Amino acid sequence: MATTLAEIRAKLAAAENRGSSGSTNGDGGIYPHWNIEEGSSAKIRFLPDADPNNSFFWVERAMIKLPFTGIKGQADSRPVIVQVPCMEMYGKGTPCPILAEVRTWFKDPSLEEQGRKYWKKKSYLFQGFVRENPLKEDRVPENPIRRFIISPQIFNLIKGSLMDPELENLPVDYENGLDFTVSKTSKGGYADYSTSKWARRETALAATDMEAIEKYGLFNLSEFLPKKPGEVELKVIKEMFEASVNGEEYDAERWGQYYKPPGLDVGTAAPASTESSAPVTAAPARASVEDVEVDDDDVAPTAPVKAPSPETKTSSQRAEDILAMIRNRQK
Q1: How far, in Å, CA of 72 to CA of 252, rounded?
Q2: What is the Cα Rg of the chain in Å?
Q3: Residue 17 has what pLDDT?
Q4: Torsion 248-251-256-262 (CA) sign
Q5: Per-position b or e across 17-46, b if 16+ CB within 10 A of its CB
Q6: Are 47 and 1 spatial neighbours (Cβ–Cβ below 8 Å)?
Q7: How many angstroms separate the Cα of 157 from the Cα of each of 62, 110, 161, 193?
Q8: Please, are residues 120 and 96 in contact by the beta-carbon 8 Å criterion?
Q9: Domain assignment of residue 86, yes or no
């Protein structure tokens, strides 16, 4: 684990130089910041990861959405989406069968739009306290240490501030840390969090916060990533991907015990998988930025429908350079 701000900055810089840029809320531990009303804010205090081998205070998630025209055998079935883990989430040396296929599509401009549909969607898992909560939650867990699924838009703000030379201490420091305010507005009909920011003044954790850490302990964030698919699961993922691309319906009899749409009952006692035991993740609400943002640094995007932010343009330019290198290697 990186214990100083300099070490984190070095790690982030190294990741940039390399060209780098599922789960349901079974126990109520995930704080749904995407549900706050437009114009409101939630104040968060991030905490370190319990994993001593993790240099950062977050872990990266990478999921792939497989759309289906409906569910086989159900009358008047509507389109559904099943999320599966991208194998690249488990290490750069772990090939993803879907991305291996999709990467070749970008050689043909007519397939680029289809390729982006099946590209991995990144998000980042953090933990911490909710210091100011505008939500009226029906279910608040006893453990006040919550988990946060952070979109690339918010993550880029977090990461960018860490590289600021004027930042002297780690934001997760117990004595001299910083709160982070998640502010929700809208842009082009979608939720926008670009005004989110770190606090300007450092503060210490409250005595009650320290008591909670002592009582409950910190989470090992990697334990909340989707389970790594084995040989059988990989076969199922390949079948589902091919069926999705071919415009077929989701077959619960073939795949329901492995991956399924949110809320689908396939005859098991549990109505939905928990985030620590199964690789299926529920799709977020439409207002959630996780549903509309994609971190696709390895592909060449076409011109977006809506005007991108300056950060998006920079990412797109980087993506084009990376794609050119991939094509040159393939040649």
Answers
A1: 7
A2: 20
A3: 53
A4: positive
A5: eeeebbbbbbeebbbbbbbbeeeebbbbbb
A6: no
A7: 19, 33, 6, 9
A8: yes
A9: yes
- Are 51 and 44 in contact by the 8 Å Cβ rule? The answer is no
Question: Any idea what the CATH number is for the domain that residue 197 is in?
Answer: 3.90.198.10
- Residue 167's pLDDT band (cuts 50, 70, 90): confident
Structure tokens at 196: 């989110």
Cβ neighbours of residue 111 under 8 Å, at least 6 residues apart? 105
3-class secondary structure per residue, the chain: CCCCHHHHHHHHHHHHHCCCCCCCCCCCCECCHHHCCCCCEEEEEECCCCCCCCCCCCEEEEEEEEEECCECCCCCCCCEEEEEECHHHHCCCCCCHHHHHHHHHCCCHHHHHHHHHCCCEEEEEEEEEEEECCCCCCCCCCCCCEEEEECHHHHHHHHHHHCCCCCCCCCCCCCCECCEEEECEEECCEEECCCCEECCCCECCCHHHHHHHHHHCCCCHHHHCCCCCCHHHHHHHHHHHHHHHCCCCECHHHHCCCCCCCCCCCCCCCCCCCCCCCCCCCCCCCCCHHHCCCCCCCCCCCCCCCCCCHHHHHHHHHHHHHHHHHHHHHC
| 43 conformational bin, left if phi > 0, alpha if psi -120 to 50, beta if neither | beta
Q: Round to whole Å and give the CA distance between 70 and 79.
A: 4
Mean pLDDT of 26-33: 84
Q: Which two structure tokens, joined as six digits, stand for 48?
A: 């370190």
Best CA proximity match to 83, nearest among 262, 294, 267: 262
Question: pLDDT per residue over 170-193, tens digit each?
Answer: 999 999 999 999 999 999 888 999
Is 238 a member of any domain? yes
Quote the domain boundaries for residue 42: 5-295
Tell me, yes or no, whether 323 lies in a domain.
no
- Establish if 120 belongs to a structural domain: yes
Domains contained in the chain, number: 1
